[in-house]
Amino acid sequence: MTLSLRLAAALSLALMSFSASAIPANGRPEWGVYCIQGRLTVEQKQIEELKRVFGGDVCRLDQDPSPIGAREKVQRLGGPGAGCSCEM
Asked: Is residue 21 domain-resident?
């Protein structure tokens, strides 16, 4: 499966399903702005789970309690699929 198909599948799965592991102690789900294999995406999964799926080339750039807020942050960074880097 190509990288873009894997990212699309992962994003679709994250948006369609609710991950209980994404619920912090306050009971509200958190949405992460991630750089996954050099591309921006919004995920509700925990970083450890994403690293298992994508082989470790993952970092969390930001987070938001709402999917809309997380998507707005991704838009400010260049939009979904835009290039990104985990290097500081």
From this structure: yes
